[in-house]
Design a protein that fits this description.
Blueprint (H helix, E strand, L loop, with lengths): L1 H26 L11 H6 L3 E7 L2 E7 L2 H4 L5 E10 L5 E2 L1 E5 L17 E6 L4 E2 L5 E9 L10 E9 L1
Length: 160
């Protein structure tokens, strides 16, 4: 009987300790990775692709709707998350996304979130999983099939 009581007490203490640990975990601050959508991101998200065929090969050509074409060669501000193109701590060229890379980009609805390629005007930005905000000139890449993003922000600067 003593063994049962001791076992019960041990089990009760273990459960109490485990509950305390889980309770503390739930009370920690979890970053809010709310999508960074604004009017500019909404316009970027409307870009579509025309699909043509050459021989047996499908060719995807970007199609820019009027709301997005209005932004070409204008200065825009975009909040978002850094998506590095190469490994390292500092980046002068990177992708900017409305969602952090730690969140699965291919899960859920609506597929891959909108992203743009950023070219910093001077220097680089240090990688962070926190959102940043940049300001720069939006341009459309004339040859996106050669490896770069269809929409780019050039001469970008980090703003607060």
């Amino acid at each position: 009987m003593k063994k049962i009581i001791i076992g019960f007490l041990f089990l009760s203490l273990t459960c109490t300790f485990a509950h305390a640990q889980i309770g503390n975990y739930n009370e920690q601050q979890v970053p809010d990775h709310t999508p960074m959508m604004n009017d500019t991101w909404e316009a970027i998200d409307k870009m579509m692709y025309k699909v043509t065929t050459q021989g047996n090969k499908k060719i995807y050509t970007p199609s820019y709707p009027p709301v997005l074409k209005k932004l070409e060669n204008t200065i825009v501000e975009l909040p978002g998350y850094i998506v590095p193109l190469v490994s390292g701590r500092n980046h002068s060229t990177y992708m900017l996304s409305v969602l952090p890379i730690t969140q699965c980009q291919f899960c859920g609805t609506n597929g891959i979130p909108p992203m743009v390629e950023i070219f910093m005007k001077k220097g680089s930005v240090k990688y962070t999983d926190e959102p940043i905000k940049i300001k720069g000139k939006m341009v459309f890449n004339p040859e996106p099939l050669k490896g770069n993003s269809e929409i780019q922000i050039v001469d970008a600067v980090l703003i607060n």
